């Protein structure tokens, strides 16, 4: 039986192609000039990596310019795992370049980086050719999360690396110029799967949750362990001890925005899984079972808010909705500062939340729906003035959907020359 992670919307494509002069329905805004890149696992033909998360990273790119969709191309990231089948753990220890680079693609200080949380980033060109692994001149000695955060005011890139062995968690900071200027160990009780974090104006926010690594498990060696407990940590960016807040046990892959409110409390929004939701999902992600993949994969978390009060040491918890959503995104010009809107992916739909009045809008897309990347309009006067870009797949065809983020109405739709397998994260890279 074909494993679920090689079937349906997750089925890999067999090769790399280029296509030019794509058909556009509707009218692409001329100012949307740049590149939309998206990453995701794509094993080679005949290859079974044993888990959805383990497939080689493949980047899909769409070049938009002056109202036209100039090209689409897809390329595997040429990691040491891809080209040499190099072992992650070998005679000389862990090789942080022997990874899949399959989770996200971001640009910082002019460098485009394909990311996976188990190892080093891989630099790629604007044409998606692989340059090679990046360790910032030898200064990076841990893995790098796939979810770094760029401070919109300072241009610094904040990130972390987690490891199976001590130090379990290390915070890193790149200057706006791309130099690794700080690495700092953060004390946690054990090795957990820490997929994302948050950054506010003055703090770093850690999710130390009970999905724990055990070497002896083999395969994808993480599982829920009640005994680990669950806590959220707040560390001053400027340095100093981490303050931990006990929270109800849960798991989080993805945070939305976080900020400090007028009372100095930390507000954190995220797509949250309970144990009852996480455990079956985790079992299913790597399984050979029923191929109704992505609805379930995006269908178990709900939007949740924690408000952490340093004055009392107490975390207030509140669900913000009861719908199943994942992949929260927002206008990153407001990263770390209070923001109003969150964009999420529901079942064959996008859901926009207004966190000020508690309302939401649902936009059905007619297909399996990817993360919605928000692109602000030039000179925008409102937080949601801009576009959402999302890859939507129905049957064997995919398109890049461009919506007006204010009301989720259609702006344009780019017909892609092939099906794009359901994947993880992407970025809009505007002209520099
Ligand atoms: Fe992610």
Provide a quick synopsis of the model.
By secondary structure, the chain is mostly beta strands. The protein has three helices and 35 strands. 47% of the residues are buried.
Task: Describe the protein in words.
With 432 residues, this protein is mostly beta strands. The protein is 5% helix and 43% strand. The chain has three helices and 35 strands. Strand 14 and strand 15 (180-185) form a beta hairpin. The protein binds fe (ii) ion. Fe (ii) ion (FE2) binds at residues 103, 146-147, 195, 253-254, 424-425.
Give a topology summary:
Blueprint: E1 18-20, E2 24-26, E3 34-41, E4 57-65, E5 68-76, H1 80-84, E6 89-90, E7 93-94, E8 104-108, E9 111-115, E10 122-124, E11 130-133, E12 149-150, E13 157-162, E14 169-174, E15 180-185, E16 198-199, E17 203-208, E18 211-213, E19 222-224, E20 231-236, E21 243-246, E22 251-260, E23 266-273, H2 275-285, H3 293-297, E24 302-309, E25 314-319, E26 326-329, E27 341-346, E28 349-354, E29 360-364, E30 368-369, E31 373-376, E32 386-394, E33 397-404, E34 409-415, E35 426-430
Antiparallel strand pairs: 1-5, 2-34, 3-4, 3-35, 4-5, 6-7, 8-9, 9-10, 10-11, 12-13, 13-14, 14-15, 16-17, 17-20, 18-19, 20-21, 22-23, 23-24, 24-25, 26-27, 27-28, 28-29, 30-32, 31-32, 32-33, 33-34
Spatial extent as radius of gyration: 20 Å
Span from first to last CA?
47 Å
Largest sheet: 6 strands, antiparallel
Residue share in helix = under 10%
Overall pLDDT confidence: 95
What's the overall geometry? globular
Bin the strand percentage: 35-45%
Supply the helix-strand structural class.
Answer: mainly beta
Number of strands: 35
Low-confidence regions? 291-298
Tally of alpha and pi helices:
3
Unique bound compounds: fe (ii) ion
């Amino acid at each position: 039986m074909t494993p679920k992670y090689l079937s349906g919307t997750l089925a890999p494509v067999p090769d790399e192609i280029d296509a030019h002069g794509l058909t556009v329905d509707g009218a692409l805004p001329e100012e949307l000039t740049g590149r939309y890149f998206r990453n995701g696992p794509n094993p080679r033909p005949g290859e079974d990596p044993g888990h959805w998360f383990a497939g080689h990273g493949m980047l899909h790119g769409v070049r938009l310019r002056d109202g036209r969709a100039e090209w689409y191309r897809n390329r595997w990231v040429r990691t040491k795992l891809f080209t040499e089948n190099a072992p992650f753990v070998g005679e000389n220890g862990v090789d942080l370049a022997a990874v899949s680079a399959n989770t996200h693609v971001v640009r910082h200080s002019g460098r485009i980086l394909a990311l996976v949380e188990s190892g080093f980033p891989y630099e790629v060109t604007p044409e998606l050719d692989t340059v090679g692994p990046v360790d910032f001149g030898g200064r990076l000695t841990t893995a790098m999360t796939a979810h770094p955060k760029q401070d919109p005011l300072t241009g610094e890139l904040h990130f972390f690396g987690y490891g199976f062995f001590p130090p379990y968690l290390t915070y890193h900071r790149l200057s706006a110029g791309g130099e690794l200027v700080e690495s700092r160990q953060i004390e946690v009780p054990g090795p957990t799967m820490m997929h994302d974090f948050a950054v506010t104006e003055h703090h770093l926010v850690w999710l130390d949750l009970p999905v724990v690594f055990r070497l002896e498990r083999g395969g994808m060696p993480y599982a829920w362990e009640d005994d680990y407990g669950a806590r959220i940590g707040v560390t001053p960016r400027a340095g100093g001890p981490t303050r931990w807040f006990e929270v109800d046990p849960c798991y989080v892959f993805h945070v939305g925005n976080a900020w400090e409110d007028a009372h100095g409390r930390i507000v954190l929004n995220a797509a949250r899984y309970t144990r009852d939701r996480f455990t079956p999902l985790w079992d299913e992600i790597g399984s050979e079972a029923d191929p109704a993949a992505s609805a379930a994969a995006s269908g178990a978390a709900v939007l949740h808010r924690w408000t952490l009060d340093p004055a009392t040491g107490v975390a207030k918890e509140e669900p913000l909705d009861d719908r199943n959503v994942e992949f929260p995104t927002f206008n990153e010009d407001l990263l770390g500062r209070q923001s109003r809107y969150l964009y999420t992916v529901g079942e064959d739909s996008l859901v926009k939340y207004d966190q000020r009045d508690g309302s939401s809008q649902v936009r059905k897309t007619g297909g399996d729906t990817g993360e919605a990347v928000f692109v602000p309009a030039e000179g925008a006067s409102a937080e949601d003035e801009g576009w959402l870009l999302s890859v939507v797949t129905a049957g064997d065809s995919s398109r890049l959907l461009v919506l007006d983020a204010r009301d989720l109405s259609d702006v344009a739709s780019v017909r892609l020359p092939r099906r794009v397998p359901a994947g993880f994260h992407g970025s809009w890279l505007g002209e520099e």
